[in-house]
Structure formats: structure tokens, C-alpha cells
Amino acid sequence: MPGLSAPADLTLAGLAADPHPVLARLRAAGPAVWVPALGAWLVTGYDLAVAVLRDARTFTVDDPRFSTAKVVGPSMLSLDGAQHARHRGPFSRAFRYDQVHARLASSTRAEVGRLVAAIEPRGQAELRRAVAGPLAVAVMAETLGLGSVDPARILAWYDGMVAAVQAEAAKAGSTKTGGAGQAGAAAFAELAASLREAITGPGSLLAEVSGPLTEAEAISDAAVLLFGGIETTEGMIANALLHLLSSPAQLGLVLAGRRLVPAAVEESLRLEPAAAVVDRYATRDIRLGDAAVRAGDQITVSIAGANRDPAIFGDPDVFDVRRPNASRHLTFAHGPHYCLGAHLARLEAQVAVDTVLTRLPGLHLDPRHPSAPRGLVFRKPPDLRVRWSPGGRGGS
């Protein structure tokens, strides 16, 4: 490949464990680096990431290799241009800030309260599966008209789809799916059956979009909304709590002034995006710095790398809830594929963090259990085990 290439010993496992030192070295070396383990040009700088994400004509998602499309079929996530607008448009109104807060703020607060009340007397819990995941499942189920479905079933579908997408992303263009792919297909088939029932529900979101879209299209779009709304929101909440509990001084600032909760969530989004990379495919030959990208090449934009670009964010590896430009992060992407559910995800994360800090006094990480984030595509702590003082007084 003409251009800078990453070290041959750079592995997917290494990137999944702790990518940030590697990303910093690659960013310093050049704006786009060929990574053999990914089979892609890896973009790690902020400005180039914005340029790639903004230019859907040159850097498209509409490619047979796009991992999510292999699992759920064509959707707003894997289409560009007029087709992308046609799929996304019918859903847009429901995910506006005013609509999200009018329809879902009250139920989100109630669900967080219920989940925290269930663990409050225990003095210890694993917060990813006790609060973050169940909240994300409940909110997306309500949004898509799946409120009558057992949350455990939805979580099983989600786990199968996540495993399949991650397996596809790790294959660097292979067409073989293996066990994870088969499980993902089965999970999607079960989800699709429930979504077909939701489409017929009076006043449901899917009923509203089923006119402009075919049933199959509405189901594929709903699947990616469910998939993204659970996976990334669970990660957002877990990562934000991890960052706060790992930074006593920053936690103290937030406990002293809860108005800083939104800022803490934004800074956590910057420091460790739950979706660490996004893939694009070149539609023509083009140069990215010294890299001679050919039509058809995969370009993987490292959101994690761009969010720690020192040209944009001073002391980029530091968690600072008072960072003035934290909201410039690219965690929700940029351009035509900017995350449709960004307002909803922020609502969930802010309510969850505020409630957990208020209701669980003396909250701290359980030192017996490691909690570092992991993951190549989706990054979050596998377990977030914490302890607190049951019956104590919460924060102000």
C-alpha cells in the first residue's frame, strides 16, 4: 500500500485492550495509516476524521463489506444519498430533542429509579448489567413499541447481534460468518417477528414510518436503532460512571454541583467513545495526506483517536469535567450519519449518572475487580463492580 503502514505486530487484540497509546503514535506519524490487521486505512486525526465523515460521496457506507448490513440488511446506517434520506427521514421527528423529552423523559427517570431502588439495599452491584443495560433496553423497547416483550429476550437478541457485528468487523472483508454470524441471523429473525407485530400497533413509531417505508425496510431501520440504542447507550453510562469513580477530584466537583453531570457525560463521551470506530469505503482514488487511497479501499475512522487529538483537545488523556470544548467530540459521528438517537442517549446517560450518584452514597469502584474498558468496535468495561454505604445519605 502506498503510504505509511502500521507496525506488522499491531494486532486486533492489542487495539481492543488499550488502543490509545497506539493511536497517539499513529496520529503523530500521519493522518492515515494502513493497518494490515484491519485491512483498512486508519484515520486518527480530528480534522481528517471530520472530512471523511462529512463526504459521503467519496467515503460511503454503502458497500457489501459493511458489517452491520450483513446482519440486519440495508438500513439508514448502511445507505447513502437519496436512499439514506428516505430511510432516515420518517424517524427524524421522533428523535428530535423536544420530542424525546416530551415522550421519554418521565419514563426514563422512573425506570432508572426502579433499577437503582432494586440494588440500593445491597451495598454492591455490577452496574453495567444492573442499571446501564436494562435502562437502555427498556427505553428502546418503549420507543419501538416492544414494551410487552420480555426484556431478557430483547437482551438476548441484542447480544447475538452485537457478537455477529463484531465478528464481521474483525474479518477484514471475509465473507464467512461462522457461529457468531449464525447466532446473529437467528437473533435478528426473532426480533423481526416482534417488530412486525409492533408495526400494526396503533400510534406506534413503526406504524408511523411504515407508510414511507416497506415493512422490511422499517424492520431493518428499527433493528439498527435498537442495536445502537442499547449497545452504545449502555457503554456511555458505564464509561461515564467509570471515569467519575476513577477520578476522585472530578467526582467531587460533580457531587458538589450536579449541574456538571451533563458536562461529565460529554467529557466521558470524548475520552472513551462507546463506538470507537466507524467504517467507510472509498468510491474513487484519493490522497489522504501521504496515503494513496484507491477506490474500494476501506477507511476506518478512529473516533477514539480523533477525540484525543491534541490539536483540538488540550491534555487529551485527562478526564476534565470542566473542559470547555468537550462537546466537539465526534462520538455521535458527523455529517449525514450523525447519530439519530444522540438526544435520547444523552438523556439516558445524564439521568442514570445523576440518579446513581444521588441514591448510592459513598459509591466507589470495587478494587477486587478490574474495570478497564475493552473492545475493538464497542468499548466499555466488561464489568463495573461497585460498592456503597446502604442506608447512608445521598448527595445533594
Essential attributes:
15 helices, globular, 3-stranded antiparallel β-sheet, 5-stranded mixed β-sheet, alpha+beta, Cytochrome p450, 51% helix, 9% strand, 396 residues
Assigned CATH architecture: Orthogonal Bundle
Classify the helix fraction into a percent range: 40-55%
Strands, total number: 10
Mean pLDDT: 91
Low-confidence stretches: 172-177
General form:
globular
Strand order of the largest sheet: 1-2-8-5-3
Number of helices: 15
Structure, described:
The protein is built from 15 helices and 10 strands. The protein is α+β, with helices and mostly antiparallel strands. The strands form 3 sheets. It has a 5-stranded mixed β-sheet, sandwiched between helices. Strands 4-10-9 form a 3-stranded antiparallel β-sheet. Strand 6 (286-288) and strand 7 form a beta hairpin.
Quick synopsis:
This protein is α+β, with helices and mostly antiparallel strands and 396 residues long.
Topology:
Elements lengths: L11 H6 L2 H10 L2 E4 L4 E4 L2 H9 L4 E2 L6 H6 L8 H12 L4 H23 L4 E3 H18 L6 H19 L8 H22 L5 H5 L5 H31 L2 H9 L4 H11 L5 E6 L3 E3 L2 E3 L4 E5 H4 L35 H18 L4 E2 L19 E3 L9
Parallel strand pairs: 2-8
Antiparallel strand pairs: 1-2, 3-5, 4-10, 5-8, 6-7, 9-10
Helix pairs in contact: 6-7, 6-15, 7-11, 8-9, 9-11, 11-13, 11-15, 13-15
